[in-house]
């Protein structure tokens, strides 16, 4: 093992979101990888003792591995910014935009990139204005099949592929179980692809794209976290046009959403090789079935070394900012 590095690292995982178990598994894996790279690592759940824990350490760097809720919606990161604690990944304002699929999709589409047509439907509007007519209007606007999902959730929780009008109300109910707003969007047939991008100081490295082939036909929660239920092809079996479009979309999304750190961009490649944005993830999973570790391995990169570089970058950026603030 290498000699301990200068900055102790606090890996935050767990929390109270629906993705707690996935978060804990991701946190353990990243923590172990950083230890093997020579870092002093403290693992902590998201609780009332976190702020005191950080204060007791000498110049720590936080690695947020919380999925869903405060871990990805910007709340935790804004607190860390308030406390002037360096951390790995996107700042709070960026996370707020990315975490809301209706907002992120709109931002990407307005920058000229392909994104499915969508409608954001808050539950109170759905209830008060009459479910029957709104369901019919969605069917007329988007056609079938369509995708229904929560605006603010991860791991495909509450996501349903809807093939007929009769299935739509129940799909909306499933989405509302995970948040007050559902996103209903057109279904783009094609190959689902995930692209990991490592972003540091406006420099980015696009890792090999991963082609996703779930046995069930939809990459839902079970397909994501049940070993053997999904086939992954790395690198994705795309032709030259498809590969170029995927790379261009990944880079465009990073710029449009102002992403930083290790991020993942999910997309669909249609039969003509056009890449369509689905969503971005500022705290991608790091479990044994997660996509980012697969991409790192395909690129010949070590998980601990990659996160170590992000830790050092976060510490350096904070030190420079503090130094500028102290100048007269």
From TrEMBL:
Subcellular location: Cytoplasm
Keyword Nucleotide-binding attached: yes
InterPro entries: ATP-grasp, ATP_grasp_subdomain_1, D_ala_D_ala, Dala_Dala_lig_C, PreATP-grasp_dom_sf
Keyword Isomerase set for record: no
Keywords annotated in UniProt: ATP-binding, Cell shape, Cell wall biogenesis/degradation, Cytoplasm, Ligase, Nucleotide-binding, Peptidoglycan synthesis
Signal peptide: none
Pathway: Cell wall biogenesis; peptidoglycan biosynthesis
Domain ATP-grasp as annotated: residue spans: 113-312
Protein EC: 6.3.2.4
Major localisation: cytoplasm
PROSITE patterns from the UniProt entry: ATP_GRASP
Catalytic activity annotation: 2 D-alanine + ATP = D-alanyl-D-alanine + ADP + phosphate + H(+)
GO molecular function: D-alanine-D-alanine ligase activity
Entry similarity comment: Belongs to the D-alanine--D-alanine ligase family.
Function of the protein: Cell wall formation.
Identification of the protein by name: D-alanine--D-alanine ligase
Protein's organism: Luteococcus peritonei
């Amino acid at each position: 093992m290498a000699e301990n590095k200068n900055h102790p690292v606090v890996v935050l995982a767990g929390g109270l979101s629906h993705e707690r178990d996935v978060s804990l598994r991701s946190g353990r894996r990243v923590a172990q990888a950083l230890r093997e790279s020579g870092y002093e690592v403290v693992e902590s759940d998201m609780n009332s003792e976190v702020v005191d824990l950080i204060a007791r350490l000498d110049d720590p760097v936080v690695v947020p591995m919380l999925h869903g809720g405060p871990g990805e919606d910007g709340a935790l990161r804004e607190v860390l910014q308030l406390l002037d604690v360096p951390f790995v990944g996107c700042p709070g304002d960026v996370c707020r935009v990315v975490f809301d699929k209706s907002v992120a999709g709109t931002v990407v589409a307005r920058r000229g990139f392909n994104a499915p047509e969508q409608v954001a439907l808050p539950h109170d509007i759905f209830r008060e204005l009459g479910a029957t007519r709104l369901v019919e209007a969605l069917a007329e606007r988007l056609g079938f099949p369509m995708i229904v999902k929560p605006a603010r959730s991860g791991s495909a929780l509450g996501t349903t592929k809807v093939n007929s009008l009769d299935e739509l109300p129940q799909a909306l109910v499933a989405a509302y179980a995970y948040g007050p707003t559902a996103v209903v969007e057109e279904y783009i047939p094609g190959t689902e692809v995930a692209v990991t991008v490592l972003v540091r100081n406006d420099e980015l490295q696009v890792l090999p794209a991963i082609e996703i082939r779930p046995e069930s036909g939809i990459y839902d929660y079970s397909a994501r976290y049940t070993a053997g239920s999904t086939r992954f092809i790395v690198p994705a079996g795309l032709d030259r046009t498809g590969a170029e479009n995927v790379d261009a979309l990944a880079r465009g999304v990073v710029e449009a959403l102002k992403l930083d750190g290790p991020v993942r961009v999910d997309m669909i490649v249609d039969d003509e090789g056009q890449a369509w944005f689905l969503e971005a993830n500022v705290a991608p999973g790091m479990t044994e079935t997660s996509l980012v570790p697969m991409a790192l391995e395909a690129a010949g990169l070590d998980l601990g070394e990659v996160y170590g570089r992000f830790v050092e970058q976060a510490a350096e950026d904070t030190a420079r900012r503090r130094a500028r603030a102290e100048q007269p």
